[in-house]
Amino acid sequence: xxxxxxxxxxxxxxxxxxxxxxxxxxxxxxxxxxxxxxxxxxxxxxxxxxxxxxxxxxxxxxxxxxxxxxxxxxxxxxxxxxxxxxxxxxxxxxxxxxxxxxxxxxxxxxxxxxxxxxxxxxxxxxxxxxxxxxxxxxxx
Length: 140
Hints:
Pfam families: DUF2231
Transmembrane segments: 47-70, 77-95, 101-128
Helix content: over 70%
Oligomer: single chain
Number of helices: 5
Organism: Sphingomonas endophytica
Structural class: mainly alpha
Distance between the termini: 7 Å
Keywords: Membrane, Transmembrane, Transmembrane helix
Strand content: 5-15%
Radius of gyration: 18 Å
Strand order of the largest sheet: 1-2
Domain DUF2231: 12-133
Order of helices and strands: EHHHHHE
């Protein structure tokens, strides 16, 4: 008979809710930056700045929870390191976006948006991908 067992590491539901914001908002900021580069409409730069700020606000507690999970040896350090990379790149990107619209979204702002988006998507994959893993053992 096969009995399902839990995945080796699962995040707390509150952690998952907090993680959902940076996973959605950092790529939204990247999309707004790309749209701004194509249209030169200043409101897209403002939208990216607000998306980055929201991702940082909700990403900080998610980062803290991921560090606590890694310290308790419930998770690997790859997840908190990727989340920290996304958060630091997002913070620098927030400072970059605080300049005027023409200076904020250029090569620097776009690269920071790419780094933060890629890192947070990889962190989300690591954190939430483990939830779908079901290990089956033979029970005798």
